Amino acid sequence: xxxxxxxxxxxxxxxxxPAPHSDFAHVPTLTLxxxxxxxxxxxxxxxxxxxxxxxxxxxxxxPSLSGVATVLVVDAVELPVLAAAVRSNVTCCLPxxxxxxxRTLVIDAAxxxxxxxxxxxxxxxxxxxxxxxxxxxxxxxxxLDEAEALAxxxxxxxxxxxxxxxxxxxxxxxxxxxxxxxxxxxxxxxxLMEGRWHDELLARLDDPRYAGRGVRVSFERKSGNELxxxxxxxxxxxxxxxxxxxxxxxxxxxxxxGIALARLMSFDDLRWEGRGNRVIGRISA
Length: 285
Hints:
38% of the residues are buried. Helix 6 runs antiparallel to helix 7 (161-180) and helix 7 (161-180) packs antiparallel against helix 11 (250-266). The chain has 2 domains: 12-122, Response regulator (Rossmann fold), CATH 3.40.50.2300; 125-284, Heat Shock Protein 90 (2-Layer Sandwich). The model is unreliable at 1-9 and 247-255 (pLDDT under 50). Helices cover 45% and strands 20% of the residues. The chain is α/β, with parallel strands linked by helices.
């Protein structure tokens, strides 16, 4: 069964390799899964053979999927795999050899976790009530915790906030990690697999070379109900024209996929300015 955008609830979507049973909707890529309306409760990530798990960890298991539980299918339940999954906010792992009963048990547990997350998000009544009244505002963030909180507030200012928060957080994280802290894609992958990512992040936030840097964010609701969100970091920027042309090396390719996901999930248009350290997102309300 192939998944497609729908107004009904798709509870579980199997992403990657073919689903083991026709009860599951199946799509080959995360991009297609994120195009479903509404988003599913559970994404089962089953990386195609030959694709490294670290690629899927970094590109798919984002805290941006705040209302979705992610189940990672693994060939073997080994400590390094579990540690990498935890660092990447994977909800739980599912051994490929699991029988039907065990698979159902894991996915049902993931559904419960997804429901809890969505309940917490819907309980943020202040943001949901005040957000639509905000006409213009500015913020400054430095840390990933601050970015996650701001993404929630910004999303509440927009229509369909549950679809905005993911792309907003994607751009804020990129601005902090790759912009201000100058961590490249290959460096992040290596740190994650070595279990040193969190320590390195904290070290760079305290490093005098980066400690004074911040990410400036502005929101403006213009006439015609057009919303504009500008995110600018203090980093050296990047060749955004190269990414938009689609001719990229491995590092830019990873960055480019994040941009594609942000555009798909949250924005009607994304535009880079300056040296690539400023991006403007437009949302038609």
